[in-house]
Write a structure and sequence with these properties.
This protein is 40% helix and 23% strand. It is built from 6 helices and 5 strands, in the order E-E-E-H-H-E-H-H-E-H-H.
C-alpha cells in the first residue's frame, strides 16, 4: 500500500465573508506534487442553514473533507492527514465531544466518506501538526488557504497550475 501525506488548512478573515481552505499532497499515482484548493463554501448559505457565522475550525474541517472527496476512486492507499487545528483530529478520532450541529454535519460527512474509501482499501489517519513549524507542505497549505480567503481570483490561477514544483516559492 502506498502511504501519502496530506496537509490541510483553513482560513477565515473574521468579520468578512472571506473564507478559504487549502490542501497539498503528493499525487499518489505519479509522485508529482498536486495542490487542490477551492473556495466553494458559501458563507450566506451556511449562515442561512445554521444561523451562525462560519468559524475557522469549520474551514479546517472543510479542507479535510474536500481532500478526502478528491481521492474517490483510488485503491490500496493509506493517507495521513495533517491539520494545524487540534480539533480536527480530536473530533475525527472521537476524543472531543461535538457541540455544534454544523461541525457534527461535516464530521458525519467525512465519516461517511471514510467508510466508502475502506471498500477500496483506502484508509486515513488524522494527525495534528504545529502551525508555522517550517514544514514546507504544511506552510504551503497555510499559504494556499490564506491566499484563497484573501483573493477569490486565485481559484482560477490554481486550476490552471495544479502541478507545481514544491520547491517553488509561494510569496
Amino acid at each position: 500500500m502506498k502511504i501519502v501525506e496530506i496537509y490541510t488548512d483553513g482560513s477565515h478573515i473574521k468579520g468578512t465573508d472571506k473564507i478559504g481552505y487549502g490542501a497539498c499532497f503528493e499525487d499518489p499515482d505519479n509522485n508529482e506534487k498536486l495542490y487542490k484548493l477551492s473556495n466553494k463554501l458559501n458563507m450566506k448559505a451556511f449562515e442561512k442553514r445554521y444561523h451562525e457565522k462560519v468559524s475557522n475550525p469549520t474551514t479546517e474541517l472543510i479542507a479535510v473533507l474536500m481532500s478526502i472527496k478528491s481521492l474517490v476512486g483510488l485503491k490500496d492507499h493509506v493517507f495521513i492527514v495533517y491539520s494545524d487545528y487540534e480539533g480536527v483530529q480530536k473530533w475525527l478520532n472521537k476524543k472531543w465531544k461535538i457541540k455544534k450541529k454544523y461541525i457534527l454535519d461535516i464530521v458525519n460527512e467525512i465519516q461517511k466518506l471514510l467508510k466508502e474509501h475502506e471498500k477500496n482499501r483506502v484508509f486515513f489517519a488524522f494527525k495534528w501538526i504545529k502551525a508555522h513549524s517550517a514544514n514546507p507542505m504544511n506552510d504551503l497549505a497555510d499559504k494556499l488557504a490564506k491566499k484563497m480567503s484573501d483573493e477569490n481570483t486565485f481559484h482560477q490561477y490554481l486550476n490552471e497550475n495544479l502541478k507545481t514544483n514544491l520547491n517553488e516559492k509561494w510569496d
